Amino acid sequence: MRFISKSHCTYSDIKQTVSYMKKTHIIALIVIAAAVGILITMLGNFSTYSNFTEAAKTTGRTHTVIGHYVPGTAQYDPKVNANSFSFVMKDENGVERKVISNTEKPQDFERSEQIQIKGHIEGNAFIATSMQLKCPSKYQDQAIQNSKQASR
Amino acid sequence: MNYIGEHLWAGALGHGLVVSAFASSILSALAYSFGTNSKIDQNAKSWRNIGRAGFWIHGISVLGVIGLLFFIMIQRYYEYEYVWGHTSDDLPFQYIFSAFWEGQEGSFLLWMFWNVVLGGILLFTAKRWEMPVLASIAIVQAFLSSMLLGFYISDADSRIGSNPFALLRNVHEAPIFNTPNYLQTVKGTGLNPLLQNYWMTIHPPTLFLGFASTVVPFAYAVAGLWTREHHAWMKPALAWALFSGAILGTGILMGGAWAYEALSFGGYWAWDPVENASLVPWLIMIAGIHTALAAKNTAHSIKSTYLFFLSSFVLIVYSTFLTRSGVLGETSVHAFTEMGLEWQLVAFLAVLCIWPLWMYFSRSRGIPKPDKEESAYSREFWMFVGALVLLFSSVLITFTTSIPVWNKIADGFSWLFGGGDITNIAPPEDEIAHHNRFQLWIGVLIGLLSGASIMLRYKVQDVNTNYKKFLLSHFGIAMGAATIITIPAMLWGGIIAWQYWLLTWTGLFTAVSNLDYIISVIRGKVKVASGPVAHIGFGLLMVGVIFSGVLKRPISVGFNSIEVNDLNPQSNKNVLVAKGDNIAIGEGYSVEYTRDWPSGNMQYFELKFTKKDSSGKIVDQFTTTPNVIRDSLPSGKYKFRAANPNTRHYLHKDVFTLAVPNWAFDDPEKPKDEAQKWVAHKMSQGDTIYTKRHYAVFTHIGNEIPKMAGYTYSEGDIPVTAILEVHELKSDKMWIAKPFFYIRESIVNNVPFEIKELGLSFRLPQILAEEKKMLIEVLDSNPDGEYVVVQALVFPGINWVWLGSIMMMIGLLMGMWEKIKGRRNKENSEEI
């Protein structure tokens, strides 16, 4: 009988456990709860890797699109507007779309291997709020030059 | 094939030293471990001697590797890939250091160098902690050395480490290596021009000393668990943690200063994954310092001190994994490129997580804790809460920074869901805003905690009337003073949002409260002032962050984005200024592009800024000289590499300026269409021709025989020179052009005349005798003239950021100094 009564959890037992809990533990629990809450909010803040087709479907949210520059389409004329740069990008599915950004033209743009843009679609154009270029590493570049020299 | 001119001895010796460094670090780690476990004094002593010898051999090997790598870089032995990839013939000597640690292998060596130095210091000073502490450091060194081994297991894709002495011809495949004397044609690729400045010389060594130093509190924590001396390890560990906090903090700060001062980012902190990766271990180290202080004074928080000091170093290794494994790939601007050592880094990380965690959990039952819990009126309680807040901040930052890792992990489990990519989370659109949104509230909490808890006393259980009175009066002073300063400051800055008021207020609250503590509680005693000094620094830093962040704005406004209906004024920050023009920009400023001049591979631009008030009176005038780095191509064109800002400093603000010249926006590799550009005119004497920005008057025919390049007089020549006066449309300046025509042996020749300054060329290909005219052709190579696209940003209150951060570092160093002094005094008087 004593064995059973021990496993019973009375109200006073609970009260005692709560009062035995250290303040630091309570604070730690609060911190963990807050962290979980904020991490979930953060998730909503993340963008998604997608493509132009997806971005055209959900115009309301931010998309991160990776693609390639379509040669000859870069337009930047600082005499007209130093804060407007546009080009046509082909995404990984081969869909092409005009991309507009209100920055200056990034250096070495024509030679970029891959472009990553973040933004959303407005009308027919993708409005990029951030742009990152992946340029061919100088090593490859140089190696090719060296081999050219050698074959000459 | 026998290649000519290679110095293969260096590679053989260097690789031998790498292997020796690896083997000796393992020997040292094993000997020190056996020594620590040994119950018999005599055995322990022998093991210690073997451990020491191992560490000495290791240290000498590492120094040898570094010396040798420097040697082959100075000698420019391009047969070595590392030398070829990081130096070039024209690289100035002072950048050899930068080139050395530009690559992964070099920066691992830098890290190992500092570990050797720190290990050497501990070997002499750690006394009874020597064996367990150096055992940990030697294990870490073994892992780091293994990163340089360069052993191939089966094929080129699976290897252990990357050998810095690898030969170029073994790394790259090119037809050039079919010739024995390929070294004749191979030239180094040089150092990235962005890295050719003094920051690259001082920032990495400081940061890596900071990285390396986190291993010492880690090693002491392991030693504490290992020997089950849960109290004694914290004293020496705390001094080292303060050192580590100061140096790592300085390293991070230097990175911010570099970005702000010398790079075109236009800011000092961008929450880039690589920046975060070094900030998080620092935050955890600071949290550990606080719990260690509480533990030292009250015996509370020993467990959390263990965990903080252990995780700070583990997070350093995690950040190494993030930045060096290539996993960050597209998400960071300055991650290293892939080296193919991901699994090795993962193994390193796994061992460093599992081994101390196992130690901790197997021994945590023995960790002493006081019977009574901390009172809510005691300092130790709120210090612990503060440490939790720092941990909280670190979790939030790491969660976002690790997005690529989450994707990788999810991909690893994709077989559960039938394969393929199942996740595609990308970092938030605006990472700076994302992090600020959460971290600024952490700032508020830390400001309140550091301002209030400094007034609390250790081990207080209950409040008596005196204590209550003391607290109320001092909190009142701090809150009142903070309010009195906040209101005018915010009104002056025109900042309305209440969040920023609260942030500024909490920053000032902690600054005033800690200043009050120095004056009225410890009465200026420097010995105990380290904490308050660091806290004041933190408060001022917050004020600076708010003012420079919220009020940062471009004055170079003029264009608005029409296509992008963008209301954010910070993105419309470029204006075009033609050479010689003086144009009005924002806030009463005007900017004039007066001149430019080349200097080595750089070109400087002089920009004259003038600020007038509403009545037209000049209130301020200053000149900045931003520059660009460029490569000269064989075609005579320039290839733009990087723009370097130039900042005008005031006490209360900075004006950051950047200029990018017109040619930087053209593709230099695009062939130029010559035929289109020569414009022909039939001219008689007195005729005028116009280009877009100039006019030229054909005044007369000269008959002197010119001395010019491309022509030497020979008997029988018939020379004709057309003399043209060339004017700029909008200035009084005049140039003379003398295109030249001659007939030699009845063949018509001409020598064009170029006015370089204007980009105009004239030539005289034909004389139209019947019409009594001359055919004069003009080439305007630069019809739109020279111009620069200028960015000018104001950073109000930026100096508070620097002042505050420097005070934090000084506070940490003061704390370290006192801890070392205190220990020495104690050791002299009594040895417990």
Short descriptors:
heterodimer, A: about 150 residues, OB fold (Dihydrolipoamide Acetyltransferase, E2P), 2 domains, 5-stranded mixed β-barrel, 5 helices, disordered N terminus, disordered C terminus, B: about 850 residues, alpha+beta, 6-stranded antiparallel beta sheet, 24 strands
> What is the CA-based Rg of chain A, rounded?
28 Å
CATH homologous superfamily grouping of the largest domain in chain A: Nucleic acid-binding proteins
Note the gap between the termini of chain A: 99 Å
- What is the residue-mean pLDDT of chain A, rounded to a whole number? 72
Query: What's the helix count of chain B?
Result: 21
- What order do the strands of the largest sheet of chain A run in, or round the barrel if closed? 2-3-4-6-5
Count of beta strands of chain A: 6
The main pleated sheet of chain B reads as: 6 strands, antiparallel
Instruction: Give the end-to-end Cα distance of chain B, rounded to a whole number of Å.
Output: 68 Å
How would you summarize this macromolecular structure in one to three sentences?
The complex is a heterodimer of chains A (152) and B (832). Chain A is an alpha/beta fold.
